[in-house]
Amino acid sequence: MPALDLAGFPAREGAPLRRPWLRELRATLALSAPLVLINLAQHGLIMADVVMLGRLGAEQLAAATLAHGLYFILFIGGIGLTSTVAPLIAEALGREPGATDPVRRTLRAGFWAATLIAAPMMVLLWYTGPLLAAIGEPPALAEAAGAYMRVLQWAMWPALLFMGLRGALAALERPGWALAASLAALPLNVAIGIWLAFPASNAFPTGLDLGMAGVGLATVTAATFSLVLLIAVVLCDRRLHRYRLFHRLWRFDPVLLGRVFRLGLPIVATGLAEAGLFEAAALGMGLFGATQLAAHAVAIQIAAFCFMVPNGVAQAATVRVGLAYGRRDGAGVRRSGLVALGLAFCFMTLCAGVQLTAPATLTGLFLDLGAPSNTGVLPVAVAFIGFAALFAVADGVQSVCLGMLRGLQDTTVPMWVAVGGYWGLGVPLGAGLAWGAGFEGYGIWTGFCAGLFVVAGLLLLRWRRLTTGLLPRPAAG
User: Fold this and answer.
1) pTM (two decimals)
2) Are residues 274 and 244 part of one domain?
3) How far lies 180's CA from each of 4, 5, 34, 35, 185, in Å?
4) Which long-range contacts (CB under 8 A, 24 or more apart) does 446-450 make?
5) Where is the signal peptide (predicted)?
6) pLDDT value at residue 11
7) Which tens digits make up the pLDDT trace of 303-325?
8) 153 in the same domain as 281
9) Could you tell me where the DSSP H helices lie in 14-57?
């Protein structure tokens, strides 16, 4: 009887054992590097918007922060469905290398899921202004955020379709085209944003001075452009022709779509639990005034920029673990996960060091520190960046652990871990310290740290239990 390796997987005998860890490191780096760059490029779009909005003024930045929070909490929910494309395709290719039908059908189901989820989310976003006013946000901020969102919301559908196609290309270990499309969209977003948002200048003599609406319209244009460009280059790539990725894209596949939703809905809940933590913090910051909200926006953008690297490593871990899972290679599953975890841990430790040593310099990248209206923002932003440094490592670890577990198609237990850690601990603790103890925004950031550390620790325990065979093989979803 063969030895059992992972949750009943037979050990692969006769496989080459020479330097397997180095081979895995190379494979993970080769896949994660373009995925990280894609994340950085896409987050660069967000950061460019924040910089442009910051140049419009602290009030505009505060209003846009409220709008961005609502947009991205829903967008992350949509990503939860489209992110199932990568592990499903990876498992299919691990089980049957060179298969084409499951690749095409899975991408098609991902596109259908993105479309079905985008429509109601865009309707909800249309009423951002009234929603913010109803929960007590200052009327001027709520009105400005609502007007901005009625432009920004149109980026939702093309952005989700892009994420689904990117996941398919990652599982095929061909992420370069998605990187090219993301990089091409970045300068386009900046150029159009400056042209539309600001008054005429020497660089843009025809500047339209549309303010926040101009920034939002630039984001919509960039999202649509990146999707169209990615579809075009995929159609021209001879190495992808045999997959016929867009063949009969209109066909409805209820069986596979049901599998996408079963696997993806716990991922949606997990993403919403984490995103909801940050959105609750932004809403709470708004109640403490524009100064703390603007400082929070700066600190969150810095933390989010650093997070793009472990997030890309996590996406690579999903594919690498999924391929090993599909071929029933337990040792390969463990090796893929641990390599990805080590990469994320090292990088986020470096990020934490930079945030602790140069917070004022980082703040100056987003706000004009010489402007009188921003004088009070700097000391608050410096303090918040210090908190962000504290949870940087935990944030990277939890992200990669989620990617590793998704490669095993284990999504339900991580969902409950995230909901419990963020909403059972992080939000109540942050609220208690902010309002009960009078620490305001500093208390909210303390809740951040506590929730992230607990979630990271529990997800590590979940991975350890599954990969040491103490639990039965996880079922999809």
Assistant:
1) 0.78
2) no
3) 43, 39, 9, 11, 9
4) 446/387, 447/277, 447/281, 448/277, 448/278, 448/281, 448/387, 448/391, 449/387, 449/390, 449/391, 449/394, 450/425, 450/426
5) none
6) 45
7) 888 888 899 899 999 999 998 88
8) no
9) 20-56
